[in-house]
Amino acid sequence: QVQLVESGGGLVQAGGSLRLSCAASGSSISYNRMVMSWYRQAPGKQRELVAAISSADSTNYADSVKGRFRISRDNAKNTVYLQMNSLKPEDTGVYYCKAVQIPAMLNYWGQGTQVTVSS
Hints:
Largest sheet: 7 strands, mixed
Helix content: under 10%
Mean pLDDT: 95
Number of strands: 11
Shape: globular
Order of helices and strands: EEEEEEEEEEE
Distance between the termini: 40 Å
Low-confidence stretches: none
């Protein structure tokens, strides 16, 4: 079992920055083999992928955040980060961390952290 705990959300003005963190813990965790990603869900909308990072540090981003957000991971700390710059009101939502354990393809989700960007 893997537990994910997000932190770093909050209220920020448009154009500002936030850094989200997601720490993983659990028994028999093989964090360096996990694919980590961030999703977000705005009110009344479906959850969408924001960014993902593989065990080999390969990354991909939603078109809407390319050039503004950066995902990274620290395997020594079992933590993934999402640096969010030039925030826009449309970035508002609950941000969730997801871990996929390879090769079993088991999915784990964090509880979410609220990000609110005011105009």
